[in-house]
Amino acid sequence: xxxxxxxxxxxxxxxxxxxxxxxxxxxxxxxxxxxxxxxxxxxxxxxxxxxxxxxxxxxxxxxxxxxxxxxxxxxxxx
Length: 78
What we know:
mainly alpha, about 0% strand
């Protein structure tokens, strides 16, 4: 018997696939910043966020928003 999906299930699945595609761990963010040769302040300025936000990402205390994750992934490909 086929499984029935409701709209919430479909939305969650779509959202999960987007997040999975762009998710970065705190260590990946820190590694990327260092690879780019940027300080936390410089990366924060590039992304339009406060410096302490970048520090919190790198410490694993916070997670970047989906649009910011996409920007980080873009920078990663440079």
